[in-house]
Amino acid sequence: MMNKKIPVLPTPHIDLGLLFLRLAGSFMLFYVHGLPKVLNYAHELTQIEDPFGMGPQLSLWAAILAEFICPMLIALGLFTRLACLPILGVLLIAMLVVHPGWSIAEGQFGWLLLVIFISIAICGPGNWRVLPFNERTGRY
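^ DoxX family protein, sequence as received from the core. Prediction below:
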């Protein structure tokens, strides 16, 4: 039996959908949560929850990584799956530890962000990104 390579067909509609998901989800997280934390750093230090007793500064830096830096990487399609991990961690901590009493309606923004970033982590960035992945060589 001959080993035939199955050609990889272009999937522009899937790539467009993944690009839209990356840009929209990253923008919402960045604009609503990340940017205010960076612009109002001193005030945020007095407001941030510290559920594990790490101190407000370390908690705020973890949130800035997840809500400011990682969304930029995801929007560009750089280290996308890896960049989803801090976001998922912070969102799960927020929804299950910091706000466990919230109803689905009260926490809908957080739950929707979880759906978006879990989907991106599963699917990856798609082909439309800064450094396209070459499936043939396995390199960027």
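The chain has one domain: 14-47+54-123.
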